[in-house]
From TrEMBL, chains A, B:
Region (Disordered): 561-591, 669-727
Protein name, entry field: Sodium/hydrogen exchanger
Keyword Cell wall biogenesis/degradation on entry: no
Organism: Cavia porcellus
Residue ranges of every copy of the Cation/H+ exchanger transmembrane domain listed in the record: 85-536
Statement: the UniProt record of this protein carries the keyword Ion transport: yes
Extent of Basic and acidic residues compositional bias: 689-706
Length: 727, 727
């Protein structure tokens, strides 16, 4: 790792600037403004005569103003790009075009602007000056420069390879448009990842937790290892052919394997959402992609940390290897803990204060606490992005239940907007980077090799893992699901952010270029091919899941009482043979216990009996679940609401959260009508709840997973209130 | 202006760092993380032996990591501060404590942390190195440093006065905690100002527009001039007494007058909101404070631009003076135009696309367009903050009407949260800055003089201006209102941001310190004294204005049909003699025409007949208002909805926006019951509208301003639907 790139300078501003043809129209008033400022500057020139250094001051001031103006223009470029993207997305959605997703579109627009920037702007000289301060033998992050008696402070921005020192001045503008990689990690990724965690559909996620964990951890590791090894072969080949002269170690190949293993099937999931494809497949894909982002980020930093002792620094060293594994486990569990702890703290704060009377305060607190997770993890040397993911999951699981109705929609919408903007920004920046990034290394052999490797790497973990998982799963993962998962191996924002983070060495530059191309082609081709693929693989679509009702908050409160909104859809499709045990008409209670592993059951009952009552207003009172000698503590921690309604209140609420919230379709009471008696399920249990003194966790588990409908609904009275719009 | 401070370096990161006692508990896991990282670093040390520069790399890497960690910790400090503030605010609101506003609270917490930072942390040496590169005679914004063959790029951060070069290394931490002033202007102020514009209660604002403009423009100019002259006297006195040795010109005094003339009665307005004080007084105060922020910012930059030619650079020069005035007018009108144009473009885009089917896209577009105003203005050399203000007003007036119901609440809530966070951040930073800012100059004479000057400056524009305004106003501004306006001269975020922008010279440092103290005392003392003052001045409170119904979106659609929600409240209070012509039972139509100036009426009819129909879905069809030869154009621009309902549809909607949205109290249908027949007003006109072929603008003006209730309501059928919660 070169020193320059390791430094974290000003990501917010160390940024992009230059005149843009696209902006020509917008920039007409600029000339006027310039004239004004020039006048001001000219008149200030008079006064400056008094001071001997006035002319210098003026020059610096003008330079600073110019730099500020250029920063504004370049940010404006990106905003214009995003605006254009939004308008075209609207057009696409309006005309129901599905072959190109908004992210693909953002990349295309980025590419166009990139081409314009690259070939359409004159290569004017920059504002830099080269100082030869050779008396020091290393670079410092801060520099105090004594310029004829005055001291100026400079901060390190990065190293420039010696060959490019001259080109720096030539391509000042292009260099400026490629902005600091840390922006991705510190500003753009956190909202994306948090939103992924916060919008996780818990029920389906937890039902497939084992498989998701297997795919995410084992799968990513296998994929990383296979891609790394294949690429090492490719690199060897390139050396033989004479295409590669620079250093390219085995660890570099593994690093490439790690960063490229982070899948991001954003376009596939968007189409799943739009077509209402199978929820289990959705959960598998979404869960895998969310977690393997976390795995990939930690894996890549562990590989960077793998540094064997001794002279032969790139040979295998068991001690260093285990140290890397230790670092992986340490960082991962540390980040996980940090995220979970912040989530729990937020849940406690929102539970024990009456903040919910003031939604603005509540939303602000929620936002700050979630952000602080990121900073806390970074401050502790863990990975902020991973912490934010688990914080999001915890917030959705606990805190969300304590929020006021208004704050729920506020927080959802806030993070939805942030997520949307950040994601589209990253993708349009990717398009831009293909032409404006200065250090591209296009190596055809490496690129072709990489495409083959990621294909094989994905195949080598999806199919074997699915085979082993199917041995233990009751809901088998069918061949069509496996093919679909194989197909959905898109690469996106995370791979890009990891690749751009360090582009100091030749090997890393080659990786970056290859990653960029892989992202482009997977997003475009796979994104466009999803709809045909779905029908070709016979995967059921049109599963109407009423997961978006609480978009309309006013309907929500009626809905909640009468309907369990997240239960299995009825068996209404031809491809259903794959998931035979899936309908509510199957064997009953026994199934769930077999299906969910003992560890999940253990966790569930612990969560239900202790965590939920402590952290939220729902669940059984602690006084009934805790042993008698904890009586006082239990009474303090249990909120009074629990005694009033001893029901599993609102447990399904957080499943309401939108997953890809760019399409708000409302489905009314489709589930209620689709499945007859199931509509009255929650209502009737809540009626029972009042009479029951102690609810067994096993019973609640069954109830919550949607089993035993017939039994329960035959006793209770269906409490389905008239729906405001559909009734 | 010194060169160093004029440069705009990395505001996002050039930031704050250090261990905090408050954070001690939170930072325990840090040690663990540090251990991990140290392990990684140590193992990487082995491999580094291969390269001769490896040790340096390692050192730089570790330095960068440490710097990144410190950045996280310091940001975390601020987040913790905000979290603490939020929790305490909740407690205060919960217990109905009114003597201390949240901003005052944020300052107190900031002060406490500042004291801890200042006196509680050891003065460890920094990580800087001093290089003496004396071969150049000026500073450049970018530096290429050749360090033993490697090139490093440095960016200029600012100048350090020679006397402080040594102290820089000593107080590294404290220096870092005072972060870049441009952050305030580019990140924190825009959302605050935009929110102010977006949440303006249009009806009351426009009814008092003349007075507001007078207070904002004339008043600020008078105040600036008077304060400047008084302070010049104070400075002379200080020179005589021997308290001032450095330069302090007349222009500096005027500059101080400009920055300190920006009032920010945030605490007063919050209390007004809470107590539902008189709406006209609220409109006057809020409108004045919003606009005088804009005036102050442009005025101060015009004063900086005032640089007379010739040797005696600080004497009066007519040419330079008029140039300054020209700059003022140019920047102000330019910024105004820019903001209005962006708002209009957004309105057109939202009108002519069906974006409202996709609230997420709509919200994102709205956000981006609003932000682009800021950047566009900055890129053109205008003032982004001012442009954003007028953009907000335009968005509220036109675009808001085109948005979907969901986007309305989303945009409101988004900017509300941003505003809340930014405002509290600024105020807590102010508290912090009192102790951590390195260049304070406390001058008792100057500070006392400033307090006297701002008092006199405010008195000298409120009372005379009110006198002149009362000559033309039908609703006289009573003495109690004048006293209240006099009393509400708080200084806040804008004064601070303007003062901290340039603290290079001794004079500016003195101004900054004084501004900080003025903000503290005005916020604390005036904020605490508002409630007693209101009752002492006999200003009516408890005016129930149903301006917050559409908080509950589900009720809104019912409400809109039957009720004109923004009309005058009934005369129900003792202090009513002040506004005698205010009730709906007064003389009728004639009143409004007299009350509103002809220019306002002209604008109103132009707005109603042309702008609203072009930019929104409401108003009369253009085919009826435009001359016949524009038929084709008119048909293209008029939206089909207008023909369906030729009513002044939704014109009052944007008045719904919360002004100080930290308290969401709902008032149900209080207006409906409070004023009998007025409830059916809009509904009946909309029934009529269908029958009317051409609506005269004068008629609509009367209707919109709430006159002629009796006439209209006697003809129409009251269409008040049952309210969901109150019925």
């Amino acid at each position: 790792m070169e020193p320059g790139d390791a430094v974290h300078p000003s990501p917010w501003r160390a940024v992009w600037a230059l005149p843009l043809r696209l902006l020509l129209l917008l920039l007409l008033p600029l000339l006027l403004g310039r004239g004004l400022r020039a006048g001001a500057a000219a008149s200030s020139a008079g006064a400056a005569a008094e001071d001997s250094s006035a002319m210098e001051e003026l020059a610096t001031e003008k330079e600073a103003e110019e730099s500020h103006r250029q920063d504004s223009v370049s940010l404006l470029t990106f905003i214009l790009l995003l605006t254009l993207t939004i308008l075209t997305i609207w057009l696409f959605k309006h005309r129901r075009v599905r072959f190109l997703h908004e992210t693909g579109l953002a990349m295309i627009y980025g590419l166009i602007v990139g081409v314009i920037l690259r070939y359409g702007t004159p290569a004017t000289s920059g504002r830099d000056k080269s100082l030869s301060c050779t008396q020091e033998d290393r670079a410092f992050s801060t520099l105090l420069v004594n310029v004829s008696g005055k001291f100026f402070e400079y901060t390190l921005k990065g190293e420039i390879s010696p060959g490019k020192v001259n080109s720096v001045e030539q391509n000042d503008m292009l260099r400026k448009v490629t902005f600091d990689p840390e922006v991705f990690f510190n500003i753009l990724l956190p909202p994306i990842i948090f939103h992924a965690g916060y919008s996780l559909k818990k029920r389906h996620f937890f039902r497939n937790l084992g498989s998701i964990l297997a795919y995410a951890f084992l799968g990513t590791a296998v994929s990383c290892f296979i891609i790394g090894n294949l690429m090492y072969g490719v690199v060897k080949l390139m050396k033989i052919v004479g295409q590669l002269s620079d250093k390219f170690y085995y660890t570099d190949c593994l690093f490439f394997g790690a960063i490229i293993s982070a899948t991001d099937p954003v376009t596939v999931l968007a189409i799943f959402n739009e077509l209402h494809a199978d929820v289990d497949l959705y959960a598998l894909l979404f869960g895998e992609s969310v977690l393997n982002d976390a795995v990939a980020i930690v894996l890549s930093s562990s590989i960077v940390a793998y540094q064997p002792a001794g002279l032969n620094t790139h040979a295998f060293d068991a001690a260093a290897f285990f140290k890397s594994v230790g670092i992986f486990l340490g960082i991962f569990s540390g980040s996980f803990t940090m995220g979970a702890v912040t989530g729990v703290v937020t849940a406690l704060v929102t539970k024990f204060t009456k903040l919910h009377c003031f939604p603005l305060l509540e939303t602000a607190l929620f936002f700050l606490m979630s952000w602080s997770t990121f900073l806390l993890a970074e401050a502790c040397g863990f990975t902020g992005v991973v912490a934010v993911l688990f914080c999001g999951i915890t917030q959705a699981h606990y805190t969300y239940n304590n929020l006021s109705v208004e704050s729920r929609s506020r927080t959802k919408q806030l993070f939805e907007v942030l997520h949307f903007l950040a994601e589209n920004f990253i993708f349009s920046y990717m398009g831009l980077a293909l032409f404006t990034f200065q250090k591209h290394v296009f190596s055809p052999i490496f690129i072709i090799g990489a495409f083959v490797a990621i294909f094989l790497g994905r195949a080598a973990h999806i199919y074997p893992l699915s085979f082993f998982l199917n041995l233990g799963r009751r809901h088998k993962i069918g061949w069509n699901f496996q093919h679909m998962m194989m197909f959905s191996g898109l690469r996106g924002a995370m791979a890009f952010a990891l690749a751009i983070r360090d582009t100091a060495s030749y090997a890393r530059q080659m990786m970056f270029t290859t990653t960029l191309l892989i992202v482009f082609f997977t997003v475009w081709i796979i994104g466009g091919g999803t709809t045909p693929m779905l029908s070709w693989l016979n995967i059921r679509v049109g599963v109407e899941e009423p997961s978006e009702e609480d978009q309309n908050e006013h309907r929500w409160q009626y809905f909640r009482v009468g309907v369990d909104p997240d239960q299995d859809p009825p068996p209404n499709n031809d491809s259903f043979q794959v998931l035979q045990g899936d309908g509510p008409d199957s064997v009953g209670g026994n199934r769930t216990k077999q299906e969910s592993a003992w560890i999940f059951r253990l966790w569930y009952s612990f969560d239900h009996n202790y965590l939920k009552p402590i952290l939220t207003h729902s669940g059984p009172p602690l006084t009934t679940t805790l042993p008698a000698w904890c009586g006082l503590l239990a009474r303090c921690l249990t909120s009074p609401q629990v005694y009033d309604n001893q029901e599993p209140l609102r447990e399904e609420d957080s499943d309401f959260i939108l997953t890809e919230g760019d399409l708000t379709l409302t489905y009314g009471d489709s589930t209620v009508t689709a499945n007859g008696s199931s509509g009255s399920h929650t209502a009737s249990t809540s009626l029972e709840g009042g009479r029951r003194t102690k609810s067994s966790s096993e019973e609640v588990l069954e109830r919550d997973l949607g089993i035993g409908d017939q039994k329960v609904s035959s006793r209770g009275t269906p409490l389905v209130f008239p729906l405001q719009e559909n009734a």
